[in-house]
Write a structure and sequence with these properties.
By secondary structure, this protein is mainly alpha-helical. The protein is built from 14 helices and four strands. The protein folds into two domains: 2-91, no CATH class; 103-322, Orthogonal Bundle (MetI-like fold), CATH 1.10.3720. The strands form two sheets. Strands 1-2 form a two-stranded antiparallel ribbon. Strands 3-4 form a two-stranded antiparallel sheet. It is globular and about 80 Å long.
Length: 328
């Protein structure tokens, strides 16, 4: 296990290095003027010249990449002398629109995106796995057909349509919940949950449909295995056979897609956060696109890549926990 973990960590380091090289190429080498992209729309010629020097764009490409990579792992200074701006570890760039390091902007928005991602994940796992297992155990029944139709219908609805309908029906028409806003969990737990409930439901309905179909297929295949028939022949309770032997072994493909989905959501749900007005990483990314704030876009891209790689590493390690047949 330790040897496997070491190999995977080396692989993760290589992947992250390749991502840094690709993002550097996209954001620094491909644009005609990277300084103009970093400076934003409202940038005077004098400020543009200063930004170009601060970013080191007058240096050779290998030196620019060295400063870019060194900033991520050790921090860096933009410019020199009294006007120099220090960007601490991890330096994902400096936003001239906000006048702050991108990492400071991200850490300010991350609690919102983390709350949104984990709350929605709990809902979609419960709904998706519950519907999938029920359909698999009652394959071909009316319940199976109804759940399958509901899953396909939920997967067909775009998240922006579901979000708007929830706001119209629950907030404006029925007045059951306030319009979503963000409250810190430590300050107001009830307000935190009640204000995030609608965004959780909007995301959960979309993702739960995929998990319901995937878990149904996995459970149908797993429950036909010989060891399941042996467990039943031994007289084990139906719940034990279904959960401990069936669902646990069929969780491998679920874990795979869960790692990708959760890793992506941790870096911000752009549409959901924008519709519900949540100040998360996704909303920051959207504002960065509107303002042409290249450092913010680059920072969110690097953060999303890190979350997805880290989530997949965790999923690989969990395979042996949920499925005893997996050995490293």
């Amino acid at each position: 296990m330790i040897i496997y973990l070491g190999r995977r960590l080396i692989g993760v380091a290589g992947i992250l290095l390749a991502i840094c090289a690709i993002t550097f190429t996209i954001f620094y080498l491909l644009p005609n003027d990277p300084a103009a992209a970093a400076c934003g729309k409202t940038c005077s010629p004098e400020r543009l010249a200063a930004v170009k020097v601060a970013m080191g764009l007058d240096q050779p490409i290998w030196s620019q990449f060295g400063s870019y990579l060194g900033g991520i792992f050790a921090g860096r200074d933009y410019g020199s002398g009294p006007s120099a701006v220090h960007c601490g570890f991890p330096c994902l760039g400096y936003s001239y629109e906000y006048g702050l390091p991108v990492w400071d902007l991200l850490t300010d928005r991350l609690p919102v995106s983390i709350s949104l991602a984990f709350g929605a994940a709990v809902l979609w796992l419960g709904l998706g796995l519950g519907a999938g297992v029920t359909s698999a155990l009652r394959k071909g029944s009316v319940t199976d057909r109804i759940l399958t139709v509901l899953s396909v219908g939920a997967a067909s609805l775009p998240v922006y349509f579901t979000s708007i309908m929830l706001i119209w029906g629950v907030v404006r028409s029925a007045g059951l919940l306030p319009y979503p806003s963000y409250h810190a969990l430590t300050e107001d737990p009830f307000g935190w949950a009640s204000n995030l409930l609608l965004p959780w439901i909007a995301l959960a309905l979309l993702y739960a449909a995929t998990y319901a179909r995937q878990s149904r297929n996995s459970m149908i295949e797993t429950m036909a295995e010989p060891y399941i028939r042996t467990a039943r022949a031994k007289g084990l309770p139906a719940l034990t056979v279904t959960v401990k032997h069936g669902l646990r072994s069929g969780m491998t493909p679920i874990l795979t897609i869960f790692g990708i989905d959760l890793g992506g959501l941790l870096a911000g749900a752009v549409i959901t956060e924008s519709i519900f007005g949540l100040p998360g990483v996704g909303r920051l990314f959207y504002d960065g696109l509107i303002r042409s704030d290249q450092p913010v876009i680059l920072g969110v891209t690097l953060l999303a890549a890190f979350f997805i790689v880290a989530a997949n590493l965790l999923v690989d390690l969990l395979y042996a926990v949920v499925d005893p047949r997996v050995r490293y």
